[in-house]
Amino acid sequence: MEKLSIFIPNSYLAETKDSKIRTYKVGLLGRYAALFRANNIVIYNDNSDGGSRDDALYMKTILEYMDTPQYLRKQVFPITPELKNVGILPPLRTPHHPLTDECEVGDFRQGLTTKRVRKGTIVDIGLDRPALCKEKLSVNKVLSFRIERLGKEILVEPDEPDSVYWGYKTITSDRNLYDSITMMKNKPDLVIGTSKYAPNIISILDEVQNSIKQAQHVAILFGGPYSGINSLINERKLDYEINTVPKQGTETVRTEEALVSTLAIFNILNLE
């Protein structure tokens, strides 16, 4: 498995009104996604009375804030009501969130393109002075760069490492779950739904593991407080439907609980 996308309904926050708890719940999604190296978080429209486009955009804002390195957040995100409780968010501590400004030639950092100049594009990569990229890039974009030269002048090139986890992208879709899957540029070649009504994953563990290892892009689908996967997508459109919390001790499994339970199992299954 080279790429992992998780699908979350826009009704995820429908039963939560307190602004701090809403922020915290979205923070769990971001933290779990990063912990298990998800590449995409797709927020789809589950067409329930509780789901809304505003909630989807709220979730996107919080998730993108979390994924942005600390040294760029003030420049990228203006102060808005959605971000008033970000102090309670768990840090990601991923490789693209360095804790110091110490770096070497060849290191990778995310940077904000601030302006174009005759020589190229000025980039803020969180050091004591801006860097120069000799390419003409769009302004006010967060991109990944490789440091080519350190000294009086810092030179960088657009690049992203292949060997380490480099964060997730958040995608919002006004479409239903099936259409949200098919609209992706890099379509998943293995689609897995999660449901308490599905077979215990242990019963098909070897088959699922083999499929994961052969897949290039895996999509894992999660339902919300009002709609389970069975009511959102025809099971014939799934490669597998699995239960990753068998014999649950509670009446319901919350989306974030299903997420961390499922991703923990898939993390083990994907080990070489």
UniProtKB/TrEMBL annotation:
Source organism: Methanosphaera cuniculi
Short name of one Pfam family: Methyltrn_RNA_3
Name of the featured protein: RNA-binding protein
Gene3D superfamilies per the UniProt record, alphabetical: 3.40.1280.10, Nucleic acid-binding proteins
Domain of life: Archaea
Alphabetical list of PANTHER family matching this protein: CLASS IV SAM-BINDING METHYLTRANSFERASE-RELATED, METHYLTRANSFERASE C9ORF114-RELATED
Alphabetical list of InterPro entries matching this protein: Alpha/beta_knot_MTases, NA-bd_OB-fold, Put_MeTrfase-C9orf114-like, tRNA_m1G_MTases_N
